[in-house]
Write a structure and sequence with these properties.
Length: 398
């Protein structure tokens, strides 16, 4: 039986869940429409598939260092001015990107852009972890990610027609501006900075649990980001045109909204462990569909639907489990670093595995990683602490 501690977060209004989740999304918004960014880099801007993967990966590795800084500073820096400053730098760099011609210079610029975004995301994750209902908080994050991803993927071809090949960077700048406005609108007193008197004492056995969950986060997001980065090009390679691919990704991406809503529902039927394992298994099935020698439109769409439906549920449950272990937000900030490493490593791994118009090796590795996640996921979520939103009953996941 668990007793409510004095530092249990107070209930927060729905708009605050939305605002904080949007800010956390906007720092690395390109992740939500990564196939569109990859298509723009390869098809419109004429970079090679490998170069495009390197650009995305360097953006991700910049986010890694930005999130690392957030881990070191989350106890001492005020979250609001830090996020606003980081997002302002991000906005400026997104607007500068279209003026860069040299590939080497662009790599450096995207690294710095990722650094600013990673710092903002890391600070935002510490705020999400302090919210009353962590399942809802991270569910909102994934919900917003898939809304933005679907809208951008659907409208990007028309935006490129109207505003040119760099339209995707203008979209990222707009999202960053919205994130700044959201941060400004949140009263400072909602999420005070860490103090010793409010320090959360994480149990030693919970540290082992959290490390295992973070390992699963890393493996899962590495595979998911590798698949997501090239899923558009896989469709184009299967004789679909760019407009068709963007439309299919946009519409099937809407299923991610349903997947993201599952963690938001407070019900005895919503149990992290079995639902996470089932969702990862659906991702594995999606990869197997794409591994067919000849991919039909039906198989492609079904694979996208399974993948996009499952991804937000898995990610929300894993992040919420980490947040419940350490309500201070420190472990959540570390988990955002782990996710940044994974999101950067996935496209880089895929870039080295693919051959011209041949994605079979990359897909095989992704399938293996998804299977590995399902194998090692059982124990940590079975013994993870209860959510903040619950009262005295223990949180059963079996």
């Amino acid at each position: 039986m668990r007793h409510i501690e004095n530092n249990t977060p107070k209930r927060h209004p729905i708009w605050l869940y939305f605002a904080v989740a949007f800010i956390a999304m906007s720092g690395l918004s390109y992740i939500n429409f990564l196939p569109g960014l990859m298509n723009a880099l390869v098809v419109s801007l004429k970079y090679t598939e490998s170069q495009a993967g390197q650009l995305v990966a360097l953006n991700g590795y910049g986010a890694l260092f930005g999130t690392a800084l957030a881990i070191l500073s989350v106890k001492y820096w005020q979250w609001k001015p830090t996020i606003i400053c980081a997002m302002s730098v991000l906005l400026l760099l997104e607007l500068t990107t279209p003026a860069i011609i040299s590939f080497d210079t662009l790599i450096v610029l995207r690294f710095v852009t990722g650094f600013a975004g990673g710092l903002a995301v890391g600070m935002s994750f510490s705020v999400l972890a302090k919210m009353h209902n962590t399942n809802r908080a991270f569910g909102f994050l994934l919900f917003i990610q898939f809304i933005v991803g679907a809208l951008v993927m659907y409208t990007l071809p028309q935006l490129e027609f109207n505003f040119g090949a760099y339209a995707v960077f203008y979209v990222m700048a707009t999202i960053a501006l919205c994130g700044i406005l959201m941060a400004i609108s949140i009263p400072v007193g909602y999420f005070p900075t860490y103090t010793e008197s409010r320090k959360s004492h994480t149990r030693v056995n919970s540290l082992g649990i959290s490390m295992t969950i973070m390992l699963v986060i890393f493996i899962y997001l590495t595979a998911a980001s590798a698949l997501y980065a090239y899923v558009g090009l896989i469709g184009i390679n299967a004789s679909l045109n760019e407009t068709q691919v963007s439309s299919y990704i946009a519409f099937t991406g809407l299923l991610g909204l349903l997947g993201a809503m599952i963690p938001m529902i407070q019900s005895p039927c919503i149990k992290r462990r079995p639902l996470s394992i089932i969702s990862i298994s659906l991702c594995l099935i999606a990869v197997l569909l794409l591994l067919q020698p000849t991919i039909s439109i039906t198989a492609y769409v079904v694979a996208l639907a399974l993948f996009f439906f499952s991804w937000p549920a898995v990610q929300s449950f894993l992040f919420a489990a980490i947040a419940d272990i350490s309500p201070s937000g420190r472990l959540s900030t570390i988990s955002s670093l782990v996710s940044s490493i994974a999101m950067a490593s996935g496209p880089m791994l895929a870039a080295f595995l693919i051959k011209p118009s041949d994605y079979s090796l990359m897909l095989t590795v992704c399938a293996s990683l998804f299977a590995l996640c399902a194998v090692i996921l059982y124990m940590p979520l079975k013994t993870a602490p209860p959510t903040k939103a619950q009262s005295t009953p223990p949180y059963h996941t079996s």
